[in-house]
Write a structure and sequence with these properties.
By secondary structure, the chain is an alpha/beta fold. The strands form 4 sheets. It has a 7-stranded mixed beta sheet, with helices on both faces. Strand 1 and strand 2 form a beta hairpin. The N terminus is likely disordered. The structure holds 5-S-methyl-1-O-phosphono-5-thio-D-ribulose. 5-S-methyl-1-O-phosphono-5-thio-D-ribulose binds next to helix 2 and strand 9.
């Protein structure tokens, strides 16, 4: 990995980010993660030799973001199978590691079904493990392809909505290569716009409390050579009021059948601001993030995270996601209770468009979403 002190020269093309990869050293297969809790200061890899380590990595957000959670889930099942662990038990613990991103369960189910199909068809343990790995790799490829297609559809949509000049795009949380087998979701659209010379500025919300925008999106924007500016989440309102935002681009963790979008907490206030200021609010997500089995936004389970993520800063890395105290620097009086939902829900009427790999849905309606997913 790169020396954390190394400064990438402006004219150098940085190596693409690889958030996760499968390796087969002589000691046995492993899943290697770029530990996102250490970025941007340190590029450190986390080597998972078994599923409990991977589950902890998911819970502590060393690996995170909806599409990548799907890949982690699928590779996790393949890892359990290849290492001879109880595959059904591994699948269950992976699927339950975090509740909101629908992709996690989707990836787990795909690899698990491939494993069981192989067993049913007479495969031995190695053959069934290999079937699970093949499925994880297929999902990885599909995610990269979906990312490229979303980037193109999103770029075209922006050109249609904002025909003149360059755009100032506001984004929230982190949606680039760190969450994907490809260039990501919303960030992939910004990157395509940047390559086309139409990105004037990417406004990056810091994304309290875990700072995915500040730590991860700036890391990706800097590597892509974009013009970007970081803002604290509560500065977004004044930016809209000053007419400095041309469109909002965000990803999604789960899209309900009515088109309601669960995404990183802070997305809903941005949608309200965008509507008030007549700014397009665009969601970019693969169809694997659509959950037709969840009827509406209010039925989406929202992950509640420990209060110390709000009341402390700089907790030691690897602090378990369920601990009551994080061991970081206190930001609030000792014993303060914190409200810390990881996500909120944007109702469909506030979403201008949902960009998927299959095309753009606008206006956002349940019927339209069902049709898009049936294609
Ligand atoms: O809690 P996180 O960091 O996993 O949340 C991630 C987000 O909310 C992203 O915006 C979302 O997964 C969509 S990006 C592909």
């Amino acid at each position: 990995m790169a020396d954390p002190q190394t400064v990438i020269p402006e004219d150098a093309a940085p190596t693409p980010v690889r958030a996760l990869r499968w390796e087969e050293p002589p000691e046995g297969p492993v899943l290697v993660l770029l530990d996102q809790t250490r970025l941007p200061a340190h590029e450190v890899e986390l080597v998972c030799t078994d599923v409990p380590v991977l589950v902890e990595a998911i819970r502590t957000l060393a690996v995170r973001g909806a599409p990548l959670l799907g890949l982690a889930g699928a590779y996790g099942v393949a890892l359990a199978a290849a290492r001879g662990f109880d595959v059904d038990q591994a699948a269950e613990s992976l699927a339950q590691a975090r509740p909101t991103a629908v992709n996690l369960g989707y990836g787990v189910r795909r690899a698990l079904a491939a494993y069981h199909d192989a067993v049913k068809n007479g495969a031995d343990v190695a053959g069934a493990a290999s079937a699970a790995l093949t499925e994880a790799r297929a999902l990885h490829r599909e995610d990269a392809e979906a990312s490229a297609l979303m980037a193109e559809h999103g770029r075209a949509l922006l050109a249609e909505l904002l025909p003149a000049g360059g755009y100032r795009l506001l984004t929230h949380c982190n949606t680039g290569a760190l969450v994907s087998g490809g260039e990501g979701t919303a960030f992939a659209v910004a990157a395509a716009t940047h390559r086309n010379g139409r990105l004037r500025r990417l406004w990056v919300d810091e994304t309290r409390p875990l700072l995915q925008g500040a730590r991860l999106t700036t890391y990706e924007a800097a590597r892509a050579g974009m013009s970007y500016t970081l803002l604290s989440d509560n500065a977004a309102g004044s930016l809209f009021a000053a007419g400095e935002v041309d469109a909002v681009l965000i990803g999604a963790d789960r899209i309900a059948a009515d088109g309601a979008v669960a995404n990183k907490v802070g997305s809903y206030p941005l949608a309200v601001l965008a509507r008030y200021h007549h700014v397009p609010f665009i969601v970019v997500a693969p169809t694997s993030t659509v959950d037709l089995a969840t009827a509406e936004g209010s039925s989406i389970e929202i992950e509640q995270r420990p209060g110390h993520e709000v009341t402390e800063i700089g907790a030691p890395q690897g602090q378990t996601a369920v601990a009551e105290a994080g061991g970081g620097i206190l930001l609030a009086a000792l014993g303060t209770q914190a409200y810390n939902p990881a996500f909120d829900v944007v109702p469909p009427e506030l979403v201008t468009a949902i960009v998927t790999e299959r095309g753009v849905l606008s206006p956002v309606t349940g019927g339209g979403l069902r049709e898009l997913c049936a294609q």
